[in-house]
Amino acid sequence: MTAPMLELRDVARAFPVRDALGRSKGAVRAVDGVSLSVPRGSVLAIVGESGCGKSTLGRLALRLIEPDSGAILFEGEDLRSLSPAALRARRRDMQLIFQDPFASLDPRMTVEQAVAEPLRLHGIVPRSGERDRVAELLSRVGLRPELARRWPHEFSGGQRQRIAIARALASGPKLIVGDEPVSALDVSVQAQVINLLQDLIRELGLTFVLISHDLGVVRHIADRVAVMYLGRIVEEGPAAEVFGNPKHPYTRALLAAVPGQGHTRGAAALLEGDVPSPINPPSGCRFRTRCPHAEAICAAEIPPLADHGPKGDHIAACHLQDRLPPAAARHERDAGGERLKRLQAFFSDQRTGE
Ligand SMILES: Nc1ncnc2c1ncn2[C@@H]1O[C@H](COP(=O)(O)OP(=O)(O)OP(=O)(O)O)[C@@H](O)[C@H]1O
Ligand SMILES: [Mg+2]
After folding, report:
1. What spacing in Å lies between the alpha carbon of 13 and ligand 1's midpoint?
2. Under a CB-based contact definition with an 8 Å cutoff, are residues 284 and 298 in contact?
3. Residue 27, in any domain of the structure
4. Domain edge (last residue) among 193, 226, 259
5. Does residue 22 belong to any structural domain of this protein?
């Protein structure tokens, strides 16, 4: 069996927290015991509210920061075992696309210089071939090659994100992490850029980790979805399963909170409470302080990520997953189907309008 493109085993990373006088106030457990496997050529979405550890997880996956514990394997290989030179060579296989296309491009570099930089860094084409390769990359992301001599400020947000994508593709990566890659863009432009990413993933056989708080975007593009809450994964499975048959009360609440979806009142009210502090998270299940179903066991024991279903690939960390009210589950299943249809209609309109 071939190894997954990316595998995380019980990965944790904390950041020290200091008060105004520089005294230690403990640590934020930004990612706390996460295991994940991302098969080659697949799209895994990581969703969850702000501060739950999504970006930290993405940076760990690319080895931009190191874990405190646990293992991260890229094509079955622990990159910590590599020499600095081998690690540098590996870097071309992994790229990050940031949220903000205004901040991620150097204003003093033309488009050509920005896209050529990784080509040069990794010695991918001889200098004489650079211009052609940049032109090819630009047309791949839907930009006219003549634009190569222009400066970032001459482009719209969507165009700049396309340039950032061309730059990410330049090294010929196998794995791309997109950290909220469209959330800074206008809604109509978001759909175009998501469609572009989807085409590129398919055509180039990329493995993609999509970090997003926007479930509409995720539903459109992800094969699998991992839901994070306070540094942990609370549910993971095939996208259609997680959206259509959410097992964890937190996932249900997130889905019910998607705007304009005629959500159940109970579930919407649920997420109004604040996320507890990641410095001192609740005992047992971290979601229990906002969960309408919580029982004594939820405070006493950490629920394991487990599959209570027949297939074994849709897991949730909830003590009560077998006992949650079926009515709520059914409602959300229907809402999931409706939502999916509406989103698909929306995205296919966008595609034809592009
Ligand atoms: N370099 C850092 N130093 C200190 N704390 C950090 C650092 N990076 C992240 N954190 C903390 O770790 C937690 C997780 O942050 P992270 O940025 O991973 O969340 P996120 O899910 O990406 O949030 P958002 O949706 O707002 O981008 C937060 O409490 C954050 O304040
Ligand atoms: Mg983030």
Report:
1. 11
2. yes
3. no
4. 226
5. no
Mean pLDDT of 137-157: 95
How much is the pTM?
0.88
Nearest CA to ligand 1 atom 28: 51
Highest mean pLDDT among 129-138, 262-271, 329-338: 129-138
Tokens describing residue 24: 């230690």
| Contact between residue 28 and residue 15 where contact means Cβ atoms under 8 Å apart | yes
By residue range, what is the domain housing residue 97?
Answer: 6-17+32-226
User: Residue 43: beta bridge partners?
Assistant: 208
Which residues does a 6 A CB cutoff place in the pocket of ligand 1? 15, 28, 30, 48, 50-56, 213, 278
User: Contact at 8 Å (CB) between 234 and 318?
Assistant: yes
- Rounded to the nearest angstrom, the distance between the alpha carbon of 180 and the centre of ligand 2 is 7
The residue out of 170, 198, 226 marking a domain boundary is: 226
Which residue's alpha carbon is nearest to atom 29 within ligand 1?
51
Cα 47 to Cα 27: distance, rounded to the nearest angstrom: 23
* CATH number of the domain that residue 215 is part of: 3.40.50.300
**Residue 234 resides in a domain:** no
